[in-house]
Amino acid sequence: MVDYSPALMTDMYEYTMLDACLRDGTADRKCVFEVFTRHLPAGRRYGVVAGTGRILDALEHFHLDDEDLKFLAERKVVSPDTIKWLENFHFSGSIKGYREGEMFFPNSPILQIEGTFGECTLLETLVLSILNYDSAVASAASRMVSAAKNRPCMDMGGRRTNEWSAVAAARAAVVGGFQGTANLLAAQLYGLKAIGTAAHCFTLVHDDERSAFESQIAALGKNTTLLVDTYNIEEAVKTAVEVAGPELGGVRIDSGDLASLAQRVRNQLDALGATNTRITVTNDLDEYALAALQTAPVDSYGVGTMLVTGSGAPTCAMVYKLTEREGADGVMAPVMKKSKDKATTPGRKLAYRSYEYNLAEAEHVISGSEDKLAGYTPDEGWKDLLVDYVDHGQIDSSWQGHDAIMRAHDYRAAALNELPITAQSLMKGDPVIPTEITVL
Amino acid sequence: MVDYSPALMTDMYEYTMLDACLRDGTADRKCVFEVFTRHLPAGRRYGVVAGTGRILDALEHFHLDDEDLKFLAERKVVSPDTIKWLENFHFSGSIKGYREGEMFFPNSPILQIEGTFGECTLLETLVLSILNYDSAVASAASRMVSAAKNRPCMDMGGRRTNEWSAVAAARAAVVGGFQGTANLLAAQLYGLKAIGTAAHCFTLVHDDERSAFESQIAALGKNTTLLVDTYNIEEAVKTAVEVAGPELGGVRIDSGDLASLAQRVRNQLDALGATNTRITVTNDLDEYALAALQTAPVDSYGVGTMLVTGSGAPTCAMVYKLTEREGADGVMAPVMKKSKDKATTPGRKLAYRSYEYNLAEAEHVISGSEDKLAGYTPDEGWKDLLVDYVDHGQIDSSWQGHDAIMRAHDYRAAALNELPITAQSLMKGDPVIPTEITVL
User: Fold this and answer.
1) Size of interface A-B (CB pairs under 8 A)
2) How far apart are CA B42 and CA B430, in angstroms?
3) Cβ–Cβ < 8 Å for B87, B64
């Protein structure tokens, strides 16, 4: 059972700002906030959006119970009037943004949240936490899947990141192109394919390797995958085929020089008649290691540490900025901060991708007042990148759950194929298409 | 309200191994598993253990409810007999290991779990997830705290990592020497000091900076910290002191060249008579940036991204390995895998730290059978590094909760002071003391 509210998964200043704004009346001002990143991780050509469905899940449970309210009151985080306001809090604004599985670039308006200042402010930390981590994992996953060509990649990274990150990472990995995960809670919550058979300790707890293999076959059948590198790989492969016969499902190698070992094991399996026995390799793989294994006779990959840590970029540096708000005069006005190196583009945004010969050539971000944007007509063939997630507090549930994840999985593959092929290069470089900002 | 069981925060193979071992009887074999890392992140001189108290918290809730059991049955992860075995699962083994806040090095036996194979196996993924992430954050925090000298460091990183990682990171940061966190759930769950006042959107939602400052002072008092870099810092500081008077608590700078800006703002504040107004800086700080700010007139630091991502090392590469187990003959025997580059040291372990002139000179890991270890006498002055966390299923609750975290906070400072000063160098280098392994 998983039951919790994410309402306190929040930086304290969201609540202190709410408190001050409720006192002075600005908490009710209509606002537009935007999530974007100023830059991709160094050398990356594109990013992959993930986590939006989880934001919707969290929104459904975003309420404060008595214990939470008591905590805020006792710590004097907010005043008694604000406690009252929070008692029946639910988000009544609107959210639109990029699909999960969509490519993003610097200044892509990945999510836009519209509502009162009070309600939008409370979501900032949670929205950023989810998008920053999930998109980091999906972006890394996408590079790995490209490098693995058509071979399936499986998430085995749960043990190398926070126990809840592990669940989010499994989901984001599938959005990013992975086929399944070792993580059972992710499989349960999101209906993902779960994989895994045995670790070295399984072989070690038995009196010898043969009895371990016999036990595993008895429990999981001949189609299971036997781990063959606990002692001596050649002996293990011989024993494995003796025990399971040539119909053995697979073997896993988790150490050593994977390319040459895979070749030796393939030859040995073939010589033993186990020509359909698959080879899975696992051992600190990243996209570069996967690219190097393209010619090795490997059937699938288990990826751990580098997946769940974003392969060198464990966060996306996405920020949540106020871009438009109602003034004292009741009129919506674009706003921007002017901080050095951290200035923002004011106003709500539209976003399109343009194509030339079926390949993306630019991301177009159009900024302006609601009126001006309503009268804007994009060029022919530009793809509208924004979808509606929440309409005045009503969540569109078609973006949540297993089916949405699998659609995002397919969407990513299609969207990546529409980018110039350079996107799939592992060489460091600039974003593969430019982001062009137009202020109406 | 936070209510969940971590029992499925687990790789599937833990359950499939359990299933096979219950069938063949090896699930009841007594085992010793060990958590250690083969190496520190490149160039790091030491690591800081964190997360053990969270493992104990998780252990208290590690049970499978009907929904979980149904999931395992429907997915055919395990057999009906195993479902029965899992119905009343609780860990009845023993756990000992390093304190939270303790320094660790390659091959330090950070945690040893003793029990049946079945019960120890189910804990693997969860134990590693917690220790790998929490220790990565505490290790980074410790380097930052050293670089910040006596100035307080505050965690503001929640938005740049998974929403639950944010909570764990806040706790681990305090173990690693930080003073508080922006994260409210961490403050609630662990009784940590919470900090934070306002973001740029607070200034922007108001009609001008002055009314924003007035509103914040009205809500939070003159001792609050005003954010002064939304538009023009010099003007903002002038306005801030006009609004709050010289008793203004603090100002925060979140952009630009922090050292020179801090100096200018300090001079301006002093000239305005606000000589006690504190300066906080925040903006992608890491240990190197903190070291560079040592001579700038800064009073405290808010650290985000680099803290929660382990400052370049987002995981500790800790592993969970079987080192000893009961054989068919009922006798405990050391075991080891021989995988290339991933071989393990067999047998249960003792661990000590030796000193010369009050400075640590080596970590001593003594491996052997229970009998041999019982007869082992360490040299005079060696510190015993192992404490008991769980005794035959009974959790020692003194290692859980707020007080344990604050003891770990103090322990880290003392333990770091006992290492050679090189430990606090930010130059890349080897572990500051060697780990000497003795097999009895």
Assistant:
1) 360
2) 8
3) yes
DSSP assignment of B313-367 equals: -----EEEEEEEEE-TTS-EEE-----TT-----SEEEEEEEEETTEEEEEEEEE
In angstroms, the separation between the Cα of residue B350 and the nearest Cα of chain A is 21
Asked if A306 and A286 count as a contact pair (C-beta separation under 8 A), the reply is yes
CATH 3.20.20.70 location in chain A: 197-298
Say if residue B44's pLDDT is above 90: yes
B296 and B287 Cβ atoms separated by less than 8 Å:
no
| Amino acid identity at B320 | Y
Q: Cα A173 from chain centroid?
A: 6
- C-alpha B57/C-alpha B108 separation (Å) is 23
CATH topology of domain A6-139+313-343+384-419: nicotinate phosphoribosyltransferase (3.20.140)
Residue A431 Cα, gap to closest chain B Cα (Å): 21
Sequence-ordered alpha helix ranges (H) in A209-349: 209-220, 233-244, 258-271, 287-292, 305-308
Contacts of A218 in chain B (CB under 8 A): 20, 23-24
A75-131 pLDDT, tens digit each: 999 999 999 999 999 999 999 999 999 999 999 999 999 999 999 999 999 999 999
d(CA B437, CA B440): 10
Residues near A417 by beta carbon (within 8 Å), at least 6 away in sequence:
none
Distance from CA of A132 to the nearest CA of B (A): 6
Give the burial string for B208-235 (b: 16+ CB within 10 Å, else e).
ebbbbbbbbbebbeeebbbbbbbbebee
DSSP conformation letters of B386-408? -EEEEETTEE-GGGSHHHHHHHH
CB pair distance less than 8 Å for A185 and B309: no
B374 burial via Cβ count (<10 Å: 0-12, 13-18, 19+): exposed
Q: Which regions of chain B carry the CATH code 3.20.140.10?
A: 6-139+313-434
Question: Distance between CA B59 and CA B123 in Å, rounded?
Answer: 9
Quote the CA–CA distance of B246 and B251 in Å, as a whole number: 12
- CATH number listed for the domain at residues B6-139+313-434: 3.20.140.10
What is the residue whose two structure tokens read 């606090």?
Answer: B424
Q: Residue B35 and residue B46: Cα distance in Å, rounded?
A: 16
- CATH top-level class of B197-298: alpha beta
For CATH 3.20.140.10, the residue range(s) in chain A are 6-139+313-343+384-419
Q: What is the value of pTM for the model shown?
A: 0.98
One DSSP character per residue, B50-62 reads: --HHHHHHHHHT-
pLDDT for residue A340: 79
Tokens of B91: 């860990």
> Is the interface score ipTM higher than 0.95?
yes
A315-333 pLDDT tens trace: 999 999 999 999 999 999 9
